[in-house]
Design brief:
By secondary structure, this protein is α/β, with parallel strands linked by helices. Helices cover 39% and strands 29% of the residues. The protein has one domain: Glutaredoxin (3-Layer(aba) Sandwich).
Length: 102
């Protein structure tokens, strides 16, 4: 299941638990829209990974805090700590490798 961030306080609670892939995106971003089905597949096939979508237009401060300068940017958190970052569209296999190797 994909979770959409609703408020900034929720962010810290979500990233605390297990493995969380945070997708910083915007509705107007073409590559972000292309990534949507890939993240949907990932969320269905990898129950060990939480996918959290963060709209950069709504949560600009979070984007700045994690140095998100281009979108889509995906940051992988494990145990509340960022362990990896990917920028741009990625295929499903690339995301699985990114998660498994970090």
């Amino acid at each position: 299941m994909i979770t959409h961030l609703e408020n900034a306080a929720q962010f810290k609670e979500i990233i605390k638990g297990g493995t969380v892939l945070v997708d910083f995106y915007a509705d107007w971003c073409g590559p972000c829209r292309m990534l949507g089905p890939v993240l949907e597949k990932l969320s269905k096939e990898r129950s060990d990974v939480t996918v959290l979508k963060v709209d950069v237009d709504t949560f600009g401060a979070l984007s700045q805090q994690y140095s998100v300068f281009s979108i889509p940017t995906m940051i992988l958190f494990k145990g509340g700590n960022p362990v990896g970052k990917q920028v741009g569209y990625k295929a499903y296999s690339q995301l699985v490798d990114f998660i498994d190797n970090n």
